[in-house]
Amino acid sequence: MGTASSSSSNNNSKSVVVVDVREFRSQLPCALFSRGLEVVPKTLEVADYILTPDICVERKSLSDLFSSFQSGRLYTQVRMSASARRDTDSHLRTSLVVRLRPCAKAGRRPSC
To answer: Does the pTM exceed 0.85?
Structure first.
């Protein structure tokens, strides 16, 4: 699993967010980059975004959340997240973010 970090020892370094490559269909990776974060694309097995080595985020639309409940995929994703760090003493904390409506008006995409 990839890691992300924010260096507090060097004020000039950017915060890093590892982003699953499938998330680049959305506007969020571009928005993070345009706000000064370093965005690292990677195929992730667990989560959509890794913020720190111990914190990841799974992002879903409301319809995807319902579909994930019905298919059992959400339970599988939670189980994978829970077992992802069993080889160390730390536990991977996962947040589920549900997008209730589109982030921007249709047809408008932020430029990177």
So the answer is: no
Which domains are assigned to the chain? Answer: 16-99 (3.40.50.10130)
Burial label for 27, CB within 10 Å (0-12, 13-18, 19+), is: middle
CA neighbor of 77 nearest in space, from 94, 54, 55: 94
Contact between residue 46 and residue 81 where contact means Cβ atoms under 8 Å apart: yes
- Paired with 48 in beta bridges are none
**How much of the chain is helix, strand and coil, in % rounded to 5?**
30, 25, 45
pLDDT at 104: 53
* Token pair for 51: 């913020």
CA separation for the pair 71, 19 (Å, rounded): 24
For residue range 86-106, list pLDDT tens digits in order.
555 556 677 778 877 665 554
Question: Is the distance from CB of 39 to CB of 29 less than 8 angstroms?
Answer: yes
Three-state SS at 96: strand
